[in-house]
Amino acid sequence: MEEAQGMFEPIPSVVPAVKDNAVTHEKVELGKMLFFEPRLSSSHLISCNTCHNLGMGGDDNLETSIGHGWAKGPRNAPTVLNAVFNIAQFWDGRAEDLKAQAKGPIQAGVEMNNKPHAVEVTLNSMPEYRERFARAFPGEDKPVTFDNLAKAIEAFEATLITPASRFDQYLEGNDPVLTAEEKEGLRLFMDKGCAGCHAGRNLGGEGYFPFGVMEKPGADILPPNDQGRFQVTQTADDSYVFRAGPLRNIALTAPYFHSGMVWELRQAVAVMGESQLGEKLSDKEIDLITTFLHTLTGEQPRVEYPILPVSTPETPLPQEMVAQ
Ligand code: HEC
Ligand code: HEC
């Protein structure tokens, strides 16, 4: 337990502060509406919750996400739960924080396919949004902006944390809360070296490593066309480098890896053993580590579905979405 306490941190039960963005009640409520708001997409069909379903672990449980015009994106959707604790956002860390991140999907052609100005026009067309932005961003002349939208979504996402997993109860000193097998799994997770990359509060999400430090997985798991952080830094060293996946709630968020090619957690553990540690783990070891990973499921945030304002004659109409 002491060793684990030195490596991992429990998820706090209070909403964390975020940089340059006070998390106020007004902002959180507005951010929640925006998270569920399909009119942020040009088709009026796709919301953040479409791909980050808060009833399903904060992701879509698809291999890779499906967005505008049924376009299949290149990567698996990570969960938004506890994302506030990651060092940076996306599999390659290309967004510095959640407010920078939120602007991406709205504009991505394969996701929500919209433009910042069109989003502002849409939000301005509904009096309730105008009032709510004014209350969330008091004193601003023109509060309904794309930047403020991103800040409100970030504030809401800061509330999407999952405290009180059994593992966290253990870290807080409750020894009998884990079974002997789960503790053995934890011991293996630390001794084998998984925790070298998956530590801290999110058991990952803190550093970047080659996928295949010891042995590169096959193209079925690591497709050659996605070079990860190399696309962000253009440094050869960063070829096939990805952020170590945060493992909180991992039992809820299959399929696994940025390619979403692995559906079973056991198999993901086996792949990690070979690719990251250069070790073929025994079936027994894989079972024990997987059993431990199940203790990382925390209390899911209870989100009351927001009632969204009705469109007005000024609200732009949905754009036709042609299958691509
Ligand atoms: C069409 C599906 C889709 C939609 C819609 C979508 N996302 Fe995502 N989201 C993804 C995918 C796929 C990724 C990973 C992309 C990557 O790493 O390159 C992602 C990544 C993220 C991350 C990073 C999490 C992490 O651990 O790195 C956050 C946070 C997030 N999305 C929030 C949002 C918000 C907020 C919205 C609405 C404004 C949104 N997403 C809309 C599919 C979607
Ligand atoms: C050298 C660093 C490193 C080590 C050691 C390591 N991992 Fe990983 N892990 C990563 C990286 C990087 C990823 C993201 C891979 C990708 O691009 O999909 C990852 C992804 C994962 C995922 C999938 C996460 C998701 O959301 O899909 C699981 C599960 C996982 N690791 C478990 C383990 C286990 C269990 C061990 C020990 C047997 C381990 N890892 C050892 C770096 C590491």
Automatic annotation (TrEMBL):
Modifications the protein undergoes after translation, according to the UniProt entry: Binds 2 heme groups per subunit.
Pfam families documented for this protein: CCP_MauG
Record-level Gene Ontology MF annotations: cytochrome-c peroxidase activity; electron transfer activity; heme binding; metal ion binding
UniProt subcellular location: Periplasm
Top-level taxon in the UniProt lineage: Bacteria
PROSITE patterns for the chain: CYTC
Cofactor remark from the record: Binds 2 heme groups.
Entry coiled-coil feature ranges: none
Residues annotated as binding heme c 2: 194, 197-198, 272
Keyword line: Electron transport, Heme, Iron, Metal-binding, Oxidoreductase, Periplasm, Peroxidase, Signal, Transport
Domain Cytochrome c residue range list: 26-157, 180-297
Protein name (database record): Cytochrome-c peroxidase
Organism: Nisaea acidiphila
